[in-house]
Fold each of these.
Amino acid sequence: MGIEAIKVNRGRIIEVINTSLKDKEKGQGFFKEIPPEQNYIDLLKKHGEEIGDDKFALHALFFTTTIVRGDDTEQLFKRIANDNLIKKFDWIFKPDDVLKRQDEVIDACFQFFRPGGYNSDAFQQWIHNSDVLENKFGGDLKNYFEFHHNDATEIINALIVKPRAKTFEKPDFRRFGPKLSRLFIQWVGQYGFYNLKNVDKNGIPVDFQIGRILIQTKGIELSKPTKTYDVSHRTLLPVLTDIFAAENISPQLVSETLWTIGSRGCNKKRHQLCPLENMCTSLISRDPYDDGGVFDPRDVGRFKI
């Protein structure tokens, strides 16, 4: 398995993106609803104002992003967008409190997030990330941004854990790969947390939903099941980044739009509402992605009733 199994149709990808963005502008169908993270972020900001902590919302978003993996994103944010829950467990997003209550952290994180999949692994790094944030960056993530010259590209590169990295090569913070680092920076800019340079020059967090759409519409063609990393990060990330720059397209809008189509359309087989219905040739399963770390291009029933 490798990139030799992948054929890229750049023109088709541009067509898919433009068709999707035009439909999003209408605000109909899948796009009537707000993004799944918005209510949660609004509550974080509200709580931060109530307790007089201008760092709280950004820190909570930072830690929460490490959980957006191996779970249903929509269901995750529905669970945690709860004002009473945030008030009860706000301390898990305060690095100084985490370090004082280390024995309670993992249980509190489980109670707050009620994670699916293998997300519980993130809690093992919670104390480490809190320790780095508190003792290396003065308990303020903005100091981390400034350390990296307030440059989104530099921050993303600093967050990513390289495969098989040795201990001394590992970044300050844990659990951020190519997808989650970009997702976090995207949200920082999208929701006005902090003004970073070059936010729109780093592509998008390519996940299953975005990959599946481009496979199902033949933006890319796979001759066989192919490793997720080869599809998402070795192929789609650079291709999409180049397209955004050449076509002057907003990465954040594309990320939000394609994710919405995949999650609220493909997942629920609401093909009749999909702007890509006439371009779509198949429906692929998420199981090989979750179980084996591959995109399998075989149709599992796009046209079955």
Note: The first strand starts at residue 6 and ends at 8.
Amino acid sequence: MNIIYIAISAFGGGIVASILGWLDSAETFEVRKFGASLVRSLVAAIAFSVAYTYANGLSPIDIGIAFLGGAGVDAVGNRISGAIKAGIK
């Protein structure tokens, strides 16, 4: 059950980061960009849940770290994809 909490927290962190990024950009909502954030958040959720299978216990701090990690994966992935797109043009 702990794995599910970690996965939901990491996924939620990525989604919150993508929504806050969209609100900050003042652009119209694009499903394609949000879909990419969904995929990155899912990857973060899987990675954190696999990593936490080796942990002995779960605390609120662990859930907070997973949330921030999910947000970080989305933010870094967004920066990398933006740099790749800028380099292609």
Note: The first helix runs from residue 2 to 25.
